[in-house]
Amino acid sequence: MDAATPETKRVEVLLFGPQAELAGVRSVGIDIAAGRTTCAEALSLVAERCAALRPSIASSRLAVDHAFADGCAVLRGDEELALIGMVGGG
Amino acid sequence: MSAAVTVRLFEGPLAASSTAEAPPGAGAVWVFEGRVRPEEDGRSLTALRYEAYPPMTTRQLEALAEEVRLAHGVFALHVEHSTARVPVGEVSFRLTVHSAHRKAGLAAADAFIDRMKRDVALWKTPLFAGEAEAARGG
Prior knowledge:
The complex is a heterodimer of chains A (90) and B (138).
Chain A: E1 8-14, H1 17-23, E2 27-33, H2 39-49, H3 54-57, E3 61-64, E4 67-68, E5 81-84
Parallel strand pairs in A: 1-5
Antiparallel strand pairs in A: 1-2, 3-4, 3-5
Chain B: E1 5-11, E2 28-35, E3 39-40, E4 43-52, H1 56-72, E5 76-87, E6 91-99, H2 102-119, E7 122-128
Parallel strand pairs in B: 1-5
Antiparallel strand pairs in B: 2-6, 3-4, 4-5, 4-7, 5-6
Helix pairs in contact in B: 1-2
């Protein structure tokens, strides 16, 4: 592989609660460019892959290894990713 | 994490009452219990299914409780929250706040609950009467 070409990795984004119900699955697979794709871009990829999640993506955040990540944070491709949206404890 | 903050997740409904001990000097003890209402959006419920994302959920609740404790100058916050299925009428959430005086405790409870509902990785899915419940757990 060309050193300048980022490796494409398939990663799973975990879904919970109403978003999992809407999507009908517990995770959505997206293809990212390791070391280049940002968290904000990953959220857009989730919306592209799953139309049922589009209305709630803008109010959702990505958790990377169990902590909220900034939209500009770059993904390596080996993290645990989770979509945190439509929360409602209590 | 301060011993003045505790967070516990339980599978299913919470037990009948809080077991948190009041620290010395606590002149006020607020106990808020959230129960599953019998209907949502005009439809009859049988239960709510709660879901957490451990350990993120517990970490968030602990950090939030400590932040609120310091911000409002209260002695302690104790958080109990259900996961999985909780039938209508049962307790799914309990927050106990120990403070010197009532106003600080009430403000702390209000702030904690608002933030929890907005930010913490906890979800609830309504299970409506007459609908088959999904087999998967919460």
